[in-house]
Amino acid sequence: MPSQTVICDHYDQHVATCQERWAQALAAEGFDAAVIHAGSEIISFLDDYHYPFRTNPHLLAWAPLTRHHDSVLVVEPGNRPVLYYYQPDDYWYLPPSDPASWWADHFDVRSVRDTGQWRDGVPAGRVAFIGDAPDLQGRDELNPERLLNRLHLDRTRKTPYELACIAESSRVAARAHVEAERAFREGCSEYEIHVRYCEAAGLVDAELPYGNIVALNTNGAVLHYQQRQHQRPEVCRSFLIDAGATQQGYASDITRTYSANGGSFSEMIEAMDGLQLGLCDGMRAGVDYRDMHLRAHQDIAGVLHDFDVITVDPATAVESGLSSVFFPHGLGHYLGLQTHDVAGLIADEEGTELPRPEGHPFLRLTRTLEAGNVLTVEPGLYFIDTLLNGWRARNGDDGVNWARVEELSPYGGIRIEDNIVVTEGEPVNLTRPAFSAQG
Ligand SMILES: [Mn+2]
């Protein structure tokens, strides 16, 4: 697979960047070394089954150890990092296979049979321990905050390897999104669409970066809708799907909305699509993401006004909080090893908070954008009963065309989400070309 080659090609440079960043961060905080623990499996209460395992992202940032509980990396600047690669002698579960050389050649890999063998390799001096494994409990220097803040800020500037992983992850997700739309057009249930998505992506639930949101009709108005109805609805009006994929641990996070037929809702999707592309184009180095979030409110209020849903001008709707009734979440977030990636709200290693705009408590990114940032742009417009009722209780019929709301409510809502790379020049949209390539 050519894209896989691209990922491997960039990996040498990626490890060199990790070495550099960790050396700087450790020196700045007065540490001689770090021990990064992948984490251990967690068993459910009174049972012998494990919760789905997720590797400590600080380890994943070094190497694609996505399923490798109890592996441990020792980072000591000046030396080759030592990887205690956990391969138990087990016949209940299949142990991890020997590591692939494209990444493992950068480490001093020591295959270990016991989870605690890394303890013999803890370097002398002041050592930071990073992770949440029970094995790390009681360590003095566990997850030092300033060190983590530095590493998190570093992780906001993606390396070419990371960009290649996220781009590939977007391609996998786009392929599955196209299949999901097909299933919707065939009249499938939410459950059936979800299965078709997973099959096209080649991923099972536990391998997805987050639980797919597969919502028909009014369910599209539930922001983190988590059910998958088996029953096919009597009438299929609309379909909102928020679903990603992963590649070497890196996530994509994509949302699309479809209308079964033409008419106002379909036209509204088109208007939101144009608006979203405009916002994507604005994601440039030096731009404050908070300003983009506020611009999104202004733009969405414009759509609401154009479609006769609100009767006040856009500026008034933003000022009064009416736009937040229809768009109650943030414009987007950083994306990487974590779907909601780190350091979106901090200014420096102290963790100084960059405040959200007043009245916008759910925004997850308040930083000024830099080249190398990867983020989502996901404006939304929903008909959410509880928020609409709240507005009506406080403001009466002010500003809202309730007849129009009633007409559009059965369609749930609209969200369109792409993944964007900020560069020194034009932003790079990873999602749109991934869909175009599906033909
Ligand atoms: Mn998102």
Q: What keywords describe this structure?
A:
globular; single chain; binds manganese (II) ion; 36% helix; Creatine Amidinohydrolase, Chain A, domain 1; 2 domains; 13 helices; alpha+beta; Creatine Amidinohydrolase; three-stranded antiparallel beta sheet; 439 residues; five-stranded mixed beta sheet
CATH topology of the largest domain: Creatine Amidinohydrolase
Q: Any idea what the CATH superfamily of the largest domain is called?
A: Creatinase/methionine aminopeptidase superfamily
Write out the distinct hetero groups bound to the structure: manganese (II) ion
Summing up helix and strand content along with how strands pair, one would put the structural category as: alpha+beta
Instruction: Name the helix and strand elements from N-terminus to C-terminus, one letter apiece.
Output: HEHEEHEEHHHEEEEEHHHHEEHHEEEH
Strand order of the largest sheet: 4-3-2-1-5
Give the radius of gyration.
23 Å
Mean pLDDT equals 96
Largest sheet: 5 strands, mixed
* Share of residues in strands: 5-15%
Residue windows where pLDDT falls under 50 for at least 5 positions:
none
Helix coverage percent: 25-40%
Q: Could you describe the 3D structure shown?
A:
With 439 residues, this protein is of the alpha+beta class. The protein folds into 2 domains: 2-155, Creatine Amidinohydrolase, Chain A, domain 1; 160-436, Creatinase/methionine aminopeptidase superfamily (Creatine Amidinohydrolase), CATH 3.90.230. It is built from 13 helices and 15 strands. It has helices at residues 2-28, 57-60, 101-104, 145-155, 160-185, 190-201, 264-281, 289-306, 314-320, 322-326, 385-395, 402-408, 431-436; strands at 33-37, 72-75, 82-86, 108-112, 127-130, 213-216, 238-243, 246-247, 250-251, 254-259, 374-377, 380-382, 413-415, 418-421, 428-429. The strands form 5 sheets. Strands 4-3-2-1-5 form a 5-stranded mixed β-sheet. A 3-stranded antiparallel β-sheet has the order 6-7-10. Strand 8 and strand 9 (250-251) form a beta hairpin. Helix 1 (2-28) runs antiparallel to helix 4 (145-155) and helix 7 (264-281) runs antiparallel to helix 8 (289-306). It is globular and about 70 Å long. Manganese (II) ion binds at residues 253, 333, 376, 378, 417.
